[in-house]
Amino acid sequence: MTDLNQDAFTIAGVQYGSRLLVGTGKYKDMEETRAAIEASGAEIVTVAIRRSNIGQNPDEPNLLDVIPPDRYTILPNTAGCFTAEDAVRTCRLARELLDGRNLVKLEVLADQKTLFPNVIETIKAAEVLIKDGFDVMVYTSDDPIIARQLAEMGCVAVMPLAGLIGSGLGICNPYNLRIILEEATVPVLVDAGVGTASDAAIAMELGCAGVLMNTAIAHAKQPVLMAEAMKHAVLAGRGAFLAGRMERKLYASASSPLAGTFF
Amino acid sequence: MQIQLNGDPFVLDRAMTLTDLIEHLGLSGKRLAIELNLEIVPRSEHSQTFLAEGDRIEIVHAIGGG
């Protein structure tokens, strides 16, 4: 029997016990960020790379003091990048910031309204980054052909959206995800769109290697409680996937035997 | 001497290395990364890297994001 607490998965040669990856954006303050991430049990935590504030509050707490890189695997993202060039620049700065660590979350966006991935720029950036030695976890659309190409290029994980970033609409197209999963040669993680615990469970029941989320936790009424709920949802979904669900039937099938009735 | 620092003009009153600039900005000891004219300058080279007129510097750090 599989012990869900010993059900590790591997990204770029490193084993992780938790299949829930979380972001650090949109929290009320650093303390809430810290508490939510702790409650989620996540080991991989995303951050964004931005200009330091010059001349303002040099004493304000640094995110990496709250989420220390010696305890968490920091996954810098390229959020806000709309061109391959900007994404590559961001990854190189992130690698310098994180003492040469190569793991990045590549996302190249197409427009502000949808934050849908620009897959052409994403592929261009992935090519450059892989050549430059990065381990690229790539945010992409739920197009199975693009997902396959990104894996073939050498991305270490493919992360299709379940719904638009920050939308909380859940798994909008489970059928595309199923095709992506059937063909997967690298870990496939749902990234974006999860709104509540059942969405995360559904992603895992479909067979995803993991789920990455931010807003679903940070914008819950009680983020720390939602973080814990998400931890359980990912475990529950993973367990159900491994256990194998029953067949769906149109008609009832009694759970209590009909034999031996006395009336 | 004037440089561009994180997109804004910034005047230096003397010759400075990147280490001097970081100290001048009160950012010593902070986790940051620096790009000089679109090239990363590794931390080990900050103290030997002198700034020149018109240099474009980006100083970045990690913030919350998904």
TrEMBL record, chain A:
Pathway: Cofactor biosynthesis; thiamine diphosphate biosynthesis
Statement: the UniProt record of this protein carries the keyword Transferase: yes
Domain of life: Bacteria
Residues that bind 1-deoxy-D-xylulose 5-phosphate: G166, A192, G193, N214, T215
Catalytic function, reaction form: [ThiS sulfur-carrier protein]-C-terminal-Gly-aminoethanethioate + 2-iminoacetate + 1-deoxy-D-xylulose 5-phosphate = [ThiS sulfur-carrier protein]-C-terminal Gly-Gly + 2-[(2R,5Z)-2-carboxy-4-methylthiazol-5(2H)-ylidene]ethyl phosphate + 2 H2O + H(+)
Signal peptide: none
Keywords: Cytoplasm, Schiff base, Thiamine biosynthesis, Transferase
Gene3D superfamilies, sorted: Aldolase class I
EC number of the protein: 2.8.1.10
EC category: transferase
Positions annotated as active site in the UniProt record: K105
Cited InterPro entries: Aldolase_TIM, Thiazole_synthase_ThiG, ThiG
Main location: cytoplasm
Pfam families documented for this protein: ThiG
Localization (cell): Cytoplasm
Domain Thiazole synthase ThiG: 11-257
Function according to Swiss-Prot or TrEMBL: Catalyzes the rearrangement of 1-deoxy-D-xylulose 5-phosphate (DXP) to produce the thiazole phosphate moiety of thiamine. Sulfur is provided by the thiocarboxylate moiety of the carrier protein ThiS. In vitro, sulfur can be provided by H(2)S.
PANTHER family associated with the record: THIAZOLE SYNTHASE
Subunit architecture: Homotetramer. Forms heterodimers with either ThiH or ThiS.
Family: Belongs to the ThiG family.
HAMAP family referenced in this protein's UniProt entry, alphabetically: ThiG (MF_00443)
Name of the protein this chain belongs to: Thiazole synthase
Organism field: Halopseudomonas salina
Lineage, opening ranks: Bacteria, Pseudomonadati, Pseudomonadota, Gammaproteobacteria, Pseudomonadales
From TrEMBL, chain B:
Pfam families in the cross-refs: ThiS (PF02597)
Coiled coil spans: none
Protein name in UniProt: Sulfur carrier protein ThiS
InterPro entries documented for this protein: Beta-grasp_dom_sf, Mopterin_synth/thiamin_S_b, Thi_S, ThiS/MoaD-like
Highest taxon listed in the record's lineage: Bacteria
SUPFAM superfamilies: MoaD/ThiS
Species per Swiss-Prot/TrEMBL record: Halopseudomonas salina
